Every structure is written in structure tokens, then in C-alpha cells.
Request: fold
Amino acid sequence: MIDVAALVLGRLPGGPFSEPVHRALDHLLSRYADPVPLSDLAALTGRTTFQLIRAFRKELGVTPHALLVRIRVHHATAMLARGEPIAGAAADVGFVDQTHFGRHFKRIHRVTPRRYMAALRAAAPPGASVSIH
Reply:
């Protein structure tokens, strides 16, 4: 399975990727907060949607949409760690609503965003502020 943090930071081992996958990755990493239809990614890469999905699964182990969700959750998690409100982080990274974000966050991290924030607050040094909204 792909290490999203390494991908987001540009340090994913195992590259280089095929040109279509590389092009789609660049697009997903730079436009993760926007709606990214699979048909647009396919057109960008010159492949059909089926060819692109197959290439992603072969090279990255996930579909383009699954990767997009992971990238969004990765960025939102960093925002939560900085004390951003949950709803704001969800909206800023492209989730439709807080519930949609919470479902994906919990699937990936095995804890809800609120509990994650509570754990951060409990672990924070005295005087540091981490807000939960």
C-alpha cells in the first residue's frame, strides 16, 4: 500500500512511475482540495478511465479516488494537529461535509477526528492551545 506522507513529501520509493500515473499524481497532489473527476484525470493522461485505474492499482496499489481521499485526510490531519477546527479542515481539503470527512478519517486512523483532537490536547504541554470545534 502507498505511503501517502512519503508521496505528499515527494519521497515515495519504487519510482519512477509511468508517465500517465506521474501526470495524474501531480494533478492530485496539486488540486486535492478541488473536485477531481476521474474523466478529467483520464483526459489529462491520454488514457481511458479503466486504463488509468489499472495503472494506479498496478503501480500504487490504490485507485485514483482512494489516493485522493488519503491525500485529503493526510492534509486535514496536519491541519488538526495545528489546532484547526474539524469542520474547517474538512472543508479546506475538499470534503463535502464534516461527516464525510469523519468517516474517512476514522477508516484511516481508527479514531474519530474529535478523539484525535482530544488526544492531542491531552498530550499538549501546559499552555499550548489545541481547539476542538
User: Anything to note?
Assistant: The helical segments are 4-8, 19-30, 38-45, 49-60, 64-81, 86-92, 98-109, 113-123.
